[in-house]
Structures are given as structure tokens and as C-alpha cells.
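Re: the 135-residue chain
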Amino acid sequence: MDENDGLTVSIPAADEVITSEIFIIRGTPETLVEQGIVSDATNPRRALLSIAPDTRPRLDEDVNPTVIVWTVTQVVEDMTQAYYLVPLEDEWVFIRTQAPTEQFDEAQSQIFAPFLASFEVLEDIPLTEVFGSYR
């Protein structure tokens, strides 16, 4: 894997009642633009505005106390999506959580918030820890 390719993980998260998804990608700001995740790599706020132009991205200190997190939430059709952008020294970690709008608050409290609170940014990503053994 080329170091500029980024790392993408999509996690379907479901329990008996809630169907949701967590999408994660880590890469340089330019890589996130190249992959169509955002269309502005100037800064985290502008990057979030590029995908949710009718919103107000903000710093959210309650998401995870160990990292800086920019966040914004929007409704797209019948889905509510929350975007989180974690700026690192040379890379960004982009996280999108989504669930049907009528289930979003429950998904937020039961699935997304615990995941985001436990989120840890590693300096290097050991692919075997993400994907298991591979060749």
C-alpha cells in the first residue's frame, strides 16, 4: 500500500434495533481530496464545509479528550450523518457516522459516542492489527 493511499475502514454497526455505519479514512488532506472525501484541504473547518455547506463546523472537546476533533451533523434524505475530522501533524482522520434519522440519537448514544470516546490515533497503522494476517 502506498503511504499516500490512505486507509479506509467501513464498519456496519447494528444491534437488534439500530442499523448504522461508521466510515473511517486516514490520509493526507490532499489524499482525502483525491479520493473525493472532501473537496477542500485548506483546513479542517473548510474541509467539512465542502461536504456540508449549510452547516457550522465546530471544535468539539466532548467527543474525545485525547485529540482535537472538528465536527458537523447534517440530514441527507432519511439519514443523519455526523462528520468528524481529526487533524494530525501531516494527516487527517476523517470519520463519518450515519444512521436513519429516526434512530440517530439512539445510535449516537449507544454506538457512536462510545466508539469515538475510545478512539485512539496511532502514529503508525499496523495493518495486521486492522485487517488480521495478510500476504
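Strands lie at 7-14, 19-27, 58-59, 70-76, 79-87, 92-100.
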